[in-house]
Amino acid sequence: MSAQRLVEQFESLEKQDHAARLAMWMFLGSETLLFGALFAAYAYYRGMYPSEFVQALHHNSVALGTTNTVVLITSSFTVALGVHFVREGRARLTAGLFALSTLFGAVFLVVKGIEYSHHIHENALPAGMYAFAERPPAGVVLGFTLYWFMTALHGLHVIAGMIMLAVVGLLCWKGRYGVHRNVAVENVGLYWHLVDVVWIFLWPLFYLTD
Amino acid sequence: MSQATIDAETRPDPLGVGADHPDYLRADSGLRSWLLTKDHKRIAIMFYVGVILFLGLGGIFALVLRTELLTPEQTFIDANTYNQMFTLHGITMVWLFMIPAIPTVFGNFVLPIMLGAKDLAFPRINLASFYVYVLSAIILLGAMVAGGADTGWTFYVPYSTTSPTAVTWMGIGIFVNGISSIMTSVNFIVTTHTMRAKGLSWHRMPLFVWASYATSIIILFATPVLGMSLVLLALDHAFGLSLFNPRYGGDPVLFQHLFWFYSHPAVYIMILPSFGVISEVVCSFSHNQPASYRAIAYSSLGIAFIGFFTWGHHMFVAGLSEFDAGVFGALSMFVAIFSAIKVFTWVATLRGGSISFATPMLYFLWFLFLFVFGGMTGVAVATQSLDVHWHDTYFVVAHFHFIMVGGTLTAFLAAAHYWFPKMFGRLYDERVGLLTSVAVFIGFVFTFLPQFLLGNGGMPRRYFTYPARYQWLNVLSTGGAWLLGAGLILALGNLVIALKWGKRAGPNPWGSRSFEWITASPPSKHNFEETPEIERSAYEYTLSEEVARERAKAR
Fold it and tell me: Does ipTM exceed 0.85?
């Protein structure tokens, strides 16, 4: 079984798993810089328009944002438990935990959707669509455009992570992963933690610092 | 003829490792076996075809715009077409030729063999990287047909957000292209870490691997930033996201920061693989170990690191404070220190060597001359007071073409000749190779040397017309460009002819000690049936050939 999954270019399974893990870390490094560009833009503009940003953030509900933070951190915990249990050979339990984590991801998206619908209702939209009776100062629009773009991009990552969790969870249920074969489970876990960490930065920047 | 060819004729090696298996070109047949291959060597060949096509396309754009500049007023195209030409030339050359060229073709082909591996760590990601590259090329070509772009390859806002051309699709195409680069670089980094043969420690690896590794690190951490800035730009152009639009408080200069945060390191993405090629060529043809292995290896990492902190030197006239500009200027000069370490080490490697004078070696000499020239003018433009005078003139155009064309293109040609026997199992015609190399060099110097004078004399870049006093230099430059184009076509023709009619090459026609030459030419499908055991570095020229072969043992 385990000899079969060793592909021809590797000498040993340890090296093969090490390679997969290293590749995921490299990819996460690259992802960090993807968001890094946006965090840099945020820092640059917040420095230019401190009070306008605060005004923009008044659109956001701290309660909803914090709920989402709790949801995501809990999901990261269940993912970490899942990775732990697959190493112990309890892959079915992992499948259940990943299903639960996928569900948490869905809850996150629903809450985010409620927030977005509030914004749309208020006309608090990005760029030229940001429409109020009295036109707000320039920096407010900018802050809110960044909010939309960064949270939407994060939302796409949540969706991607949910798909991966669901697929790997299903394969755990079918018995593909176990004590000796779990690097894919671990990698999906790592990706989900990145999604979580990005949100942990977005949360103070867009909810707590107004 | 040259020493190298004599080597090949008089000292036939045994057939090389894996010669009793069918080589990678003949192992499978049919279109499907190419299009769905997971063999790094076949993927390299497919990339080879792609980048050569785009070198041709970018070259045509260049010749059109150089021909237009023959006369001070309109020559044969209108001003809008001219704007398109310099933009499309830049986009094609940067993203479809120079960034992928050396890593995806020669890196893909020789890096796993240099490490004694059967393939890259993730062959399927490697194949996917090729198709993502093709997809980006299709998007970019589609955008060229559907409106093109007239913004210059730098896409500066605010103009790029309002340009009537297909900026949105250009941005998307380049974003997709970045995904392909990142896939390849993850593959290279992981392969270098996990797939070195037994006994092949980091300091025994060929220097080309170090250069590819450093390049991959830059690609990994710089490309996403460019991808993000171009996505923001595309969204702005298509839907009015306006993140850089002053109307909503945006700052166009922020785009320049984000753009150059990638695009300056991108210069090192383009030049570091060339350093790797040059290091291999100079050692193989002087049959000598590098004067300092560590100096060459570590200076690549030094450039990769410092390259992330120099982007501001593109923005000296964009409102940077004098202090910031000074810091960026000084940091930029660090790059010159690392580059000089390399140049001196290469030159010192020649000393005491037994030099054979084949085409790749000639390209090494051109590289040395052009790169030093380009590098020294780089120090000059990194000086704030001088750059204010030269900014946005032909001086800058000449400077970066000396690095990009004089450095990367000559190294690409050196690699194309140097690894040709390994890739295709045949020898090209050395006399024609040397002659075309001379044509390329003379064409290059005539194209770009006058541009330094034009720029210093005050001719701005990207202008459609110019005062008549600049004409004679422009005529020289255009003539040089045509010669350069002819030289490239002849060099390509020489290689294509050799594919079929070239003499058979042994496994190691140049007498190199680097590990890719252990294998048969062309290598068998798996490179090595058994992982080799390496007990020496890639440059042990003091050992006799038998001993060297014994210490890099593979069946």
Answer: yes
- Count CB pairs under 8 A between chains A and B: 122
Chain A residues in contact with B182 by the CB 8 A cut-off are 27, 30
Residue burial B56-81, b: 16+ Cβ < 10 Å; e: rest: bbbbebbbbbbbbbebeeeeebeeee
Instruction: Measure B528 CA to nearest chain A CA, in Å.
Output: 10
On the question of a cis peptide bond just before residue B421, with omega within 30 degrees of 0, the verdict is no
What span, in angstroms and rounded, lies between the C-alpha atoms of B87 and B146?
Answer: 14
Which domains does chain A possess? 13-208 (1.20.120.80)
CATH code, domain with B548: 1.20.210.10
CB contact under 8 Å between B221 and A33, yes or no, is yes
Question: Is B224 within 8 Å of chain A by CB?
Answer: yes
B26 assigned to some structural domain: no
CB-CB neighbors (< 8 A) of B122 in chain A: 19, 23
Calculate how close chain A gets to B332, using CA atoms only, in Å: 22
In a domain, B439, yes or no: yes
Cα A138 versus chain centre, distance = 30
| Chain A interface includes B98 (CB < 8 A) | no
Q: What is the pLDDT along chain B (555 residues), one digit of tens a residue?
A: 334 443 444 444 578 888 888 999 998 889 999 999 999 999 999 999 999 999 999 999 999 999 999 999 999 999 999 999 999 999 999 999 999 999 999 999 999 999 999 999 999 999 999 999 999 999 999 999 999 999 999 999 989 999 999 999 999 999 999 999 999 999 999 999 999 999 999 999 999 999 999 999 999 999 999 999 999 999 989 888 888 888 888 899 999 999 998 889 999 999 999 999 999 999 999 999 999 999 999 999 999 999 999 999 999 988 888 899 999 999 999 999 999 999 999 999 999 899 998 999 999 999 999 999 999 999 999 999 999 999 999 999 999 999 998 999 999 999 999 999 999 999 999 999 999 999 999 999 999 999 999 999 999 999 999 999 999 999 999 999 999 999 999 999 999 999 999 999 989 999 999 999 999 999 999 998 888 899 999 999 988 888 888 888 875
Burial of A132 (0-12, 13-18, 19+ CB in 10 A): exposed
Would an 8 Å CB–CB cutoff place B194 in contact with chain A?
yes
Rounded Cα gap, residues B60 and B84, in angstroms? 13
Is A26's CB within 8 Å of B189's CB? yes
Chain A residue closest to B123 (CA)? A9
Alpha-carbon distance of A210 to A144, in angstroms, equals 13
Domain tally, chain B: 1
What tokens were used for B25?
A: 């070109």
Domain that includes residue B511, residue range: 33-553
**Residue B28 is assigned to a structural domain of this protein:** no
